[in-house]
UniProtKB/TrEMBL annotation:
Belongs to the class-I pyridoxal-phosphate-dependent aminotransferase family. Keywords: Aminotransferase, Pyridoxal phosphate, Transferase. One of its GO terms (molecular function) is transaminase activity. The lineage of its organism: Bacteria, Bacillati, Actinomycetota, Actinomycetes, Micromonosporales. This is Aminotransferase. Residues 62-379 form the Aminotransferase class I/classII large domain. Its cofactor is pyridoxal 5'-phosphate. The gene is aspB. It comes from Dactylosporangium matsuzakiense. InterPro entries: Aminotransferase_I/II_large, AspAT/PAT-like, NHTrfase_class1_PyrdxlP-BS, PyrdxlP-dep_Trfase, PyrdxlP-dep_Trfase_major.
């Protein structure tokens, strides 16, 4: 049946695809609902044992309503302190921060606040898969840089239209942590060319002891060109609560504030209020579990190596970006067959850029070690079954 003409989407929306990772996860939900046992190595989060929220004792009248559209002040203050304690530079929670309904919204609203149509945004592959869609939704042009290229050669992609460089540190899907030298280079490029450096630090706690993580805020304490985006989704194990935040120069925060006011008003007040009151308790519950997830990643990296499956360099998060080696399949065909024939779900590398079509993302955040190991064996066996 033909769709009614009045429901036709805009050209802009027609150019946007569904998020591939969510598409695969929806397939998993459907297969599980029909009784299939799926080893799920595709989810973008780690599952933690944390208490169900208890709202008794809170001022209910306040928590049921809109909050300040910069976000509940107590949570902003607590987040600013967290940043200062962890990374050094001080943050003004009243001028330089806004709490958003997830960091996805923070990234999109930042881009909307600064991009003119046709402006270019440089992103290195593998990028987090929503960045290109966010840029296109702002009528900008994503400029994707193949993963084989050195970060130190990024300058050759800068044109008169370049406005933003966006990176994800630590990186989803490789687990790479940017070195201080790499960050210094990016800050220097931003300064030299008048660009905004948008750094997504959603996984900043998922770093093994001994690995140095440097927040981008450190290299630009006055926030002249750096926007730092973060989230409570991953570090606090509460992705469904939709609490993210950004730290930036007040000039940018003021523009994002207008967008927030017109689009969502504020992040969920009751949840932000709860988090302000339980911040320390929650992070002390999740930190040891985060370290278990990072350790599980290291174990899984060993299993992949033993199975002869190469991964792109990385040591943080709970993701591994595994090579398809000698398989003749592209990453989408491989992931589809792995799911349909072997009951294992991963995310195809093509979601993270053209240069990543010989890879798949393997997430070890939710399955048991035994099932993860079986999943890796299934990947190996499908590579063998589809050799060129
Ligand atoms: N940034 C990265 C790198 C992510 O992997 C995700 C979610 O998977 C997000 C941002 C979005 O997180 P949220 O909107 O839940 O804060």
């Amino acid at each position: 049946m033909r769709a009614p003409a009045a429901t036709r989407p805009s050209r802009l929306m027609s150019s946007i695809d569904q998020a591939i990772s969510i598409k695969y996860n929806n397939l998993v939900y459907e297969l599980k609902a029909t009784g299939h046992d799926i080893i799920t190595l595709s989810l973008g989060e780690a599952f933690f044992d944390i208490p169900a929220p208890d709202f008794s004792g809170f001022d209910v009248a306040e928590l049921h309503h809109y909050s300040h559209s910069r976000g509940v002040p107590e949570l902003r203050r607590r987040l600013a302190k967290y940043y200062e304690d962890r990374f050094g530079p001080s943050v003004d929670p009243d001028q330089e921060m806004i709490i958003t309904a997830g960091s996805k919204a923070a990234i999109y609203m930042t881009l909307l606040a600064v991009l003119e149509p046709g402006d270019e945004v440089i992103m290195t592959e593998p990028f987090w898969l929503s960045y290109p869609a966010h840029v296109r939704l702002c009528r900008g042009e994503p400029v994707m840089v193949a993963h084989q290229e050195s970060l130190f050669d990024l300058e050759r992609h800068i044109t008169a239209r370049t406005r933003v460089i966006i990176i994800n540190n630590p990186n989803n899907p490789t687990g790479k942590v940017y070195t201080a030298a790499e960050l210094d280079h990016l800050h220097a490029l931003a300064t030299r060319h008048g660009l905004l450096l948008l750094v997504d630090e959603a996984y900043n706690e998922f770093v093994a002891p001994g690995t140095a993580f440097v927040s981008a805020a450190v290299g630009d304490p006055e926030r002249l060109h750096t926007v730092t985006v973060n989230s409570m989704s991953k570090n606090f194990g509460i992705s469904g609560w939709r609490i993210g935040y950004l730290i930036a120069h007040r000039r940018i925060v003021d523009e994002v504030l207008k967008l927030n006011q017109h689009l969502v008003t504020c992040a969920p007040t009751i949840l932000a209020g709860y988090l302000a009151g339980h911040f320390d308790e929650l992070i002390s519950r999740t930190r040891p579990q985060i370290q278990q997830a990072v350790a599980m990643r290291a174990t899984a990296a060993g299993w992949l190596a033993d199975a002869g499956i190469d991964t792109l360099p990385g040591e943080a998060t709970f993701y591994l970006f595994g090579s398809l080696g000698e398989s003749s399949l592209n990453s989408d065909a491989f992931a589809t067959r792995l799911l349909r024939e072997r009951g294992v779900c991963v995310v195809p590398g093509i979601a993270y850029g053209e240069s990543c079509d010989r890879h798949i993302r393997i997430s070890v955040g939710t399955e048991s070690p035994e099932r993860t190991r079986r999943g890796i064996a299934a990947i190996r066996s499908l590579i063998d079954a589809t050799r060129t």
